[in-house]
Design brief:
The complex is a heterodimer. Helices cover 0% and strands 54% of the residues of chain A. By secondary structure, chain A is mainly β. Chain B is built from no helices and eleven strands. The chains are: A mainly beta, B mainly beta.
Chain lengths: 113, 113
């Protein structure tokens, strides 16, 4: 069965600093990959997704993610973090062949002034 | 506006008192699901529905029931709630189970005392 690992439970960065959130997955074929953000008191919102093609994908709010097949990773990045980026971030993996979808445990981002 | 609506947003109840959390989507999505979110465990799927009258267990179905009589509605029923069902619940809908964007409700914070 496929699985998703987000190694970092909690990350703190200073406002204006760069950010990278890690996501690793276990799956035989090329999966569908997603990053969602959950702002306090809100549901999850899609940041970006990867299905095929260019391995560097751009999303909303200035986020990007890179699919690296050799490392089974789909890390989320942002060059300069804003205080409003403080939230919980979830990586998700979709297995189209088996019609399954899995979420990681989430990474909570704190932004220091 | 495309949305998934859950009600209530907050609920405090007593052990054993039956309750229903409603979920409705206006996007004509075939696939709907329920998740619970607990600290450190991420999102765990409770039940899902591929279409009207088709429901199936997710990873943590014990103590929950669902029904899908209409395409737009997917209520979550707790026949006899227990304190270990205290959690944050999310309803989600998408065109398909895997490979498409999931739209989430704003969540229902349930406390069982």
């Amino acid at each position: 069965a496929q699985s998703v690992t987000q190694p970092d439970i909690h990350i703190t960065v200073s406002e204006g600093a760069s950010l990278e959130l890690r996501c690793n997955y276990s799956y035989g074929a090329t999966p569908y990959l997603f990053w969602y953000v959950q702002s306090p008191g809100q549901g999850l919102q899609l940041l970006l997704k990867y299905f095929s093609g260019d391995t560097l994908v751009q999303g909303i709010k200035g986020f990007e993610a890179e699919f690296k097949r050799s490392q089974s990773s789909f890390n989320l990045r942002k060059p300069s973090v804003h205080w409003s980026d403080a939230a919980e971030y979830f990586c998700a993996v979709g297995d189209y062949n088996n019609n399954d979808m899995r979420f990681g445990a989430g990474t909570r981002l704190t932004v220091k002034p | 506006e495309a949305q998934v609506t859950q009600n209530p947003r907050y609920l405090i109840t007593v052990t054993g008192k039956k309750l229903t959390v409603t979920c409705s989507q206006n996007m004509n999505h075939e696939y709907m699901s329920w998740y619970r979110q607990d600290p450190g465990l991420g999102l765990r799927q409770i039940y899902y529905s591929m279409n009207v009258e088709v429901t199936d267990k997710g990873d943590v179905p014990e103590g929950y029931k669902v029904s899908r009589k209409e395409k737009r509605n997917f209520p979550l029923i707790l026949e006899s709630p227990s304190p270990n069902q205290t959690s944050l619940y999310f309803c989600a809908s998408s065109r398909k189970r895997a490979g498409t964007e999931a739209f989430f409700g704003q969540g229902t914070r349930l406390t069982v005392v």
